[in-house]
Amino acid sequence: MVHRIHRWTVHRIKDTLVDVAQDTEVDGAQDTEVDGAQDTEVDDAQDTEVDGAEDTEVDGVDGAQNTEVDGAQDTEVDSAQDTQVGGAQDTEVDGAQDTEVDAAQDTEVVGAQDTQVDGAQDTQVDDSQDTEVDGAENTQVDDAQDTEVDGAQDTQVDGAQDTEVDSAQDTEVDAAQDTEVDSTQDTQVDGAQDTQVDGAQDTEVDGAQATEVDGAQDTQVDGVQDTEMDGAENTQVDGAQDTEVDGAQDTEVDGAQDTQVDGAQETEVDSAQDTEVDGAENTQVDGAQDTEVDVHRIQDTQVGGAQDTEVDSAQDTEVDGAENTQVDGAQDTEVDGAQDTQVDGAQDTRYREVDGAQDTEVDGAQDIEVNDAQDTEVDGAQDTEVDGAQDAEVDDAQDTEVNGAQDT
To answer: For residue 154, what are the contacts with CB-CB under 8 A and spacing of at least 6?
Structure first.
């Protein structure tokens, strides 16, 4: 209602007053300039520009809030987009969406701006913060901050932060929304929200789920799950599952399962099981049985006198140019360029895991974890590792790669 009255008032004044700049005092703090460049002062700190004119800072407060209305999103004093006010957090989304004001959080969506006024948003509903309507703005629900609907950035539930669900933390970034569910922390940063880094999704630090850096998927730091670099898949460091480097599949380091190098399949290093070179043929090394070729078009490597398709402390089998990851001593089998993960010694089928099996291969997508496994690879995304392993961490790590997006 406040929002509607505000806009009506501005338009009314514009229609009535032509060449005379008029100040309209509202609520003892708000004045509206008309005639080309009107600014609306709110509570000695906040001014709102209307009708494409530039906004005017009042009271010389550098941290004061100013909100652009009608086309422009919001104008920061320092040519930045979003404005911080009163130490409250402000989440920028895709070139200046929402503006934080006085600890109360409001979400800007699709150029529809709302103005924070003294701790309560505009279009105040039921003592909650604000309710944006018209297309895909946001809806206030149950004294929570704000709920994005249809478009649809983030959903506030139960008095938590922005995109907050059940006391978890995550933040909506660049129209790609991630939703926290069930106190699992996505892109948790030391109990805080998540940190945006260079347009990337989120950064985990200390406790260290995943760190988004420069469009790459995710980088594990301290606890060392996996490191994303330059669009490559993932790099294990210290504990050393596998290392993705420059389009190559994976490189084992220290414990040395297999090493992917420059399109070649895999090279075993240090305990020297097998060496994949150039096109997915494999060479047995160190008294292993033989090299499997053309069995279900799956190429697997014999290791240490065991059968082919080694299970339990075997390394892993490269199949059809895709890479696969050893998980929990279990074997995994590559099928049809897709990537599936063997978990807990369970058999691995071309499309479907059987017997307490965790993952299901589906149409070129990587793998869909089921039953305490937690990660879901979808549409050429990266993650694989399960149980204390890499990206798509399972058991207290919990990020999910989906559709090439970073992690949710």
So the answer is: 107, 146, 147, 148, 162, 163, 164, 171, 172, 177, 179
